[in-house]
Amino acid sequence: MNLRIVQILYLVFLTCHPLFSAEIDQLTDRDKYQDIAPDFTDTLNTYTNTLLERAVINFNENYDTAEMSFLEIRKMAAFEIFKMTAGKESDRYSERIPDRIGLLYALGKSGHGPIQTWIQSDENSPWWTKLGDNIYSDLLPDSLNKNYIVKVAGEFVGPDKIDHFFDQGYSYWLKSHFGESDRAAIEFGVESENGWYGLKAGGVFSFADLKANWEGYQFFINLFDDRKGILTMNEEGRIIISRPFDWADHVDWQFDELKNPSVMNEITYTKICRYIEKHYDRYRETYDYLKENGILDCGDKRDSCYITDDLVFSKDREFDLEKIMSGT
């Protein structure tokens, strides 16, 4: 089997693998859309709340809370939300009571969940910032994917971050033994980004992914919290939504991979640098705009709560636009 055939088979494997998704470029043409992109928050909130309402209906139709402990109620309510927002399509409207709520089930479906798929459907095209040529264009298999960006809570995010929130956030919750060990959840996330969710798949370790995972984890931990949660129990023992979900409560600048820069392997970093050098004038204009408006990376200010203490990367591998533009 020659090298070309091996490369083709590897490409097919990655693009079909459930963990595969394209990297999102929030740098290219940022100066062109920063101030004019429409805000998608209200539309996304409406759709998300519709799914959450369906999850609550499914729970109330399938479970008798009088025979369940509060932990069991939390587990199954979280599972119904995961199914509806990030689960397999065949499970979303299943009437059966699921017999699996563990990590293996969650990992059996990873990437491109219902909300991410919906965001990228044509009905939402008015809210897209869609880039064809971008810093990942010279990388395979990423060059086969379209670069969609939406503005949520004033920040520019990839649809994959919305999927990470519910999908990986749920996996964090399970891995932490339902919120008992933040450390276990964080370590799982870092290991995932070092593996087939990140460096081993696309050559990118994304801190923005970890932030989205962490926020989703907090959502599941606090489902029934009086102050932070969205669910409560009524006098009849049924779950009800106590307040609508709002993405503005969760999304901040750390969801943006320009402001919260990723770390890359040598091959990926080198190809991106060459691409920017090849289109230097285009990126110089963007760089000058970003620097003038204080939108360059804020990696040194990122929260430490979603990163392990021993996580150390060489600064040479972190995406640093200023360094790239100066040629140092």
Order of helices and strands: HHHHHHEEEHHHEHEEEHHH
- The portion of residues assigned to helices is 40-55%
Q: What's the number of helices?
A: 13
Query: Mean pLDDT score, rounded?
Result: 86
The chain-level structural class is: mainly alpha
- CA radius of gyration: 20 Å
Low-pLDDT stretches: 5-20, 95-100
Total number of strands: 7
- Which range does the strand content fall in? 5-15%
Give a short account of the largest sheet. Answer: 3 strands, antiparallel
Number of domains: 1
- Quick one: overall form? globular
Q: What's the end-to-end separation, in Å?
A: 41 Å
- Largest beta sheet: strand ordering: 1-2-3
Keywords: Signal
Signal peptide: 1-21
How would you sum up this structure in a few lines?
Keywords: Signal. The protein has 328 residues and is mainly alpha-helical.
What attributes characterize this protein structure?
328 residues; globular; two-stranded antiparallel sheet; mainly alpha; 7 strands
